[in-house]
Amino acid sequence: MPYSMDYERKLRVGFCGVSDEAYRHILPALRYAPVDLVALATPDKTRGLAVARQFGARHLYPSYQAMLDKEEIDAVLVATGFEGDDGLLSTEIVEAALKAGLHAWSAPPICANKAEINRFTQACIKTRKYVSCGFKRMGAPAYAQVAKIIADPSFGPVQSFSMRYPLFFPPLPTKGQEPSQTLDPFIEFVHPYSLITHLFGECRRMSAFRSNTGAGFVNLAYTKGLVGSLHLTGGQAASGPLERLEVIGTGANAVVDNGCRLTYYRSGGTHGDGDLLNAEDYIGDHGTGPVVWEPEYSLGSLYSSQLFIEGYVGIIRHFCDQLLAGSPPRLGNLVDMLHIMTIHDLIMAGDELNR
Fold first, then answer.
1. What is the distance between the alpha carbons of residues 266 and 346, in angstroms, rounded to a whole number?
2. Same domain for 80 and 156?
3. Strands of the chain, DSSP E
4. One domain for residues 200 and 71
5. pLDDT single digits (tens) 301-343
6. pTM assigned to the model
7. Tens of pLDDT, residues 283-300
8. Hey, how many other C-beta atoms are within 10 angstroms of the C-beta on 187?
9. Are residues 193 and 131 in the same domain?
């Protein structure tokens, strides 16, 4: 596992934002990616100086535009949180970076609705640069392993899946009301749905069922007969795990609890000898029994670090590696963003029944 200092080739990057997420997750993850942190841009001079010293940015600018005008860099990384007077500041910065001829990466949310993605598309076409949204679950080890498992012929064709995530549906708009163009708490939907998009692709039909409290289900259907559901469990216990994913294959299952504990129930597994009801022993054959992976926290290893478990390092390094190889990012690209925000906007508008 190379550290940033070990790479011979690095991206020269400018970083925008000193949000809590930037300080806790994004900037620390750069220690494991092929990047040279050239500059930091923020109007908060006091915090900016402290953050620049902490993470080794050589120059500090009072605005992203000043940084774009002065620095010779390859890409811009953005983690401004929910800042912005008219929409998200991240949308504005990413568009400006692309127009300046730079690649751009942003922590989500990168935009508030599907329409704003056109701003990125037009800029990418004109400058032939790439943009990526850092959906961290796409880079998380447990979910990356699920992708490998369900692609293996031994898992068989995927029949169905379910995912649980603690989120409420947005209120239904009143009759005749135009959908809001401002950022809504339901933007959190992009996190679980980004994983579903990564694993299963674009759905062809959806429907939703809401309870009176706002909890409910988003049901999804795909071209090859696969079906799945996203269980929005707003109101669940704060002390419980945030999420759970289960994928059903053909005689096999894969389950991820709490984003890190993966159980693979392999095809051919049994409960002891004999048929199911008459077996005396519930322990089946070792060669086909369940396999469980989970991190351990005794050694201070990299794989037990939250930066790796949650996928921050994976998604950032993917962006950098792809650019250095002269290839477009495959995770969190414009196609992913467009599908994710299409489904988000349908639900926001209350227009998600039997689509």
1. 37
2. no
3. 11-16, 35-41, 59-61, 75-78, 103-106, 131-133, 160-165, 205-210, 216-221, 227-232, 244-248, 253-257, 261-265, 291-293
4. no
5. 999 999 999 999 999 999 999 999 999 999 999 999 999 999 9
6. 0.93
7. 888 888 999 999 998 888
8. 19
9. no
